[in-house]
Every structure is written in structure tokens, then in C-alpha cells.
Amino acid sequence: MLPRVLPDTLFARNHLEMDGDGVFRLTARGRSLYQPHPAHMALEDGAPSEPMRSLAVLRKRLGEIFRDPLACSDAAGQLREMGKEVNRLACHAPDACIAAILITPCPEYTLQHALNASVLATLLGMQAQLEADEMEIVTLAAMTMNIGTVRLQDLLAGQASPPSTSQHQLIRLHPILSSALLREMGVTDPRWHETVQTHHEEWNGRGYPFQLTQAQIVDAAHIVHLADIACAKLMPRGYRSRLPARQALAQLYQNRDEQFDARLVSLLVRELGFYPPGGFVELAGGELGVVVKRGASAQSPLVVLPDAPQHILDTAAPEHPIKGATVPPRINLQQYEALTRLWENLA
């Protein structure tokens, strides 16, 4: 791997410093960027049913760290415990975890994206049959890859216009900022730092911040990158609805072997299916259904109708074919609370 050095920009010189190859630290001015900020809105009381309740608790705990990262006692230990819980949920309730990516409202976009990406990266790591120690790094890196620019990412999530020059510079630098902040928080694992620092590198060498080539990118970083981009497409932003899963996956597939590893994209398609849990579909008879569980193929999930949630329909059966996916209006808290109950007995 090429040396991972600090980009020569005014912002980087003022806010970051190097302490060896790939070791970045915040300057005093850099530390001043991370003052505590309040939550926008709490969602933890909006998910009364398991396993969604456990995801809501994780979101609350992670939010406390994101909002005041330098004040957390044993942040590294807390994050590792949260990573174990993500792994447990991904193992025992994968359909609910995928559904949460699609249906959970996002008043704090970067926080929700971090949890979603850690879940999806964990599921993808399972498909890739990673060893346990590498799986932990994938989960933790996905959870913390954007921690250095939370407020910027929240702002961009509601900004329809392209990033300004200064915003673009921060975007290009955020993998290093996140690593430097994690070091201030007590994270010392070099694999965790390397994965965070390189999670935006691409196979074609056009990624950032180091422009690494395919052979120089560790597998963990590539999995996190794919989960990051996939979640960004599957989540709504302030100026647009989320993309239907088929469209999002098609866009990723078009960039296989350029931006992404084709093998990982294929594993992602297998993991989500074209109609993932949490998605809405129109059946051939005109009924609107909610996908609750993946089926025997990517084209044939199990769905329920809103007025008969206890009756699961197998869309592989000739009497219940899917006409197509539909993206509903934004889900509010009341609808979210009702939807979470659909997975209570499926975990």
C-alpha cells in the first residue's frame, strides 16, 4: 500500500497532523470542531416491538456518542459493545434489520445512516464469509466512518444543491477526520483506522482521500464502501424519496469492476433481493403489500397486506404475483410504529 499521507490543503494543515504513516490526529483547532450539539428528535419510543426496539436502543446509544464524541467515557469499548449487538441482530433478525433501513424516519440522517450501514455491512460480511475479527472491523468502521463530519453530512442530506467548494473539501477529507476523531476517543486498532480512512477508495483508483488502486484496498474497506453507498440510495433525503431497491441495485451493478467489486455487488443483490423487507409492492390484483421477509428468490418475497398483517402471502405462488415496487410518501412516526410490529413475530 502507498503511504497514507495528509492532503496538502489549508483546512488539513490547520486541523490535522500526522504521527506516522496512516496515523492522523486532531490539532487543538481540530478538537474545537467537536462541540456537543443537541438531538433533533427522539425515535427510541417509537418502536414498541422487538427486534425494532433493540435497533432503536442502539440508535439512542450511538446518538449520545455522535452528539458529544470527546466527552464519552470509554467510547471505544461502548462502540465495540454496540458492534456486538448489531452482529447479534443481523444474525437473528436479518429481515427486520433490512426493513429498518427502509422504514425508519431520519430526523438525524447521519446517525441513522451509520446504524443502517453497519447493519448492511455486517450482513454483507456474513455473505462474504468473513472471519469474526474482520467482521467486527467491518461493523465498527461502517458505524463510525462519518463521525468526523456529522453536522456536515446532516446538512448535505437536506441540501438539494451541489456541495460548495468548502463542503467538497471536507467531504474529501472526512475519512481522515473520522479516523483522527476516533483516535482522540481512544480507538487504537490500526485495522479500524485503515478501514475508516479508505472506505471511499474505489477499484478504478479515483476514490479519496488517497487514490488507492484495487490491490491496495483492504476487503473490509470495500465492503463498508458498498454498504455506505447502498444505504445512501435506499434512504430518503430532505429533497428526494429513497430509490426503489431494484433501481439502487441496478446503479451499483452498472459500476461493478469500476467503482465496486462485482462479486460483492452480486452478494448484495442476493442479500437484499429486488424487493427487500420494508419495501412496498403492488400485487397483480392491485393490492398494496409490505414485504416482511425475503423469499426463495430475489423476485419473490413474502408480503402482508396492511389490513391483514397476520396473513403472509408468498409472491412465488401464481395467485399472488408482484406487479412492481412502489415507494410510498415519507413514513411518519405513527406509521413507523405500526410498521415495526410486522416483524415482531418473524425474528
Structural class: alpha+beta
Q: Could you tell me the mean pLDDT?
A: 90
Strands ordered across the widest β-sheet? 6-5-4-3-7
CATH class: Mainly Alpha
Q: What is the overall silhouette?
A: globular
**Any idea what the CATH superfamily is called?**
Hypothetical protein af1432
How big is the Rg?
A: 20 Å
Q: CATH topology, what is it called?
A: Hypothetical protein af1432
Largest sheet: 5 strands, antiparallel
Q: Give the beta-strand count.
A: 7
Please provide the ordered H/E string of secondary-structure elements: HEEHHHHHHHHHHHHEEEEEH
Beta-strand residue percentage: 5-15%
Pfam families: HD_5 (PF13487)
GO molecular function, one term: phosphoric diester hydrolase activity
InterPro entries: HD/PDEase_dom, HD_GYP_dom
Protein name: HD-GYP domain-containing protein
Structure in a nutshell:
This protein is of the alpha+beta class. It is 48% helix and 9% strand.
Task: Describe, in plain words, how this protein is organized in 3D.
This protein is an alpha+beta fold and 347 residues long. It has a single domain, classed as Hypothetical protein af1432 (Orthogonal Bundle). It is 48% helix and 9% strand. The chain contains 14 helices and seven strands. Strand 5 and strand 6 form a beta hairpin. It is globular and about 65 Å long. InterPro entries: HD/PDEase_dom, HD_GYP_dom. One of its GO terms (molecular function) is phosphoric diester hydrolase activity. This is HD-GYP domain-containing protein.
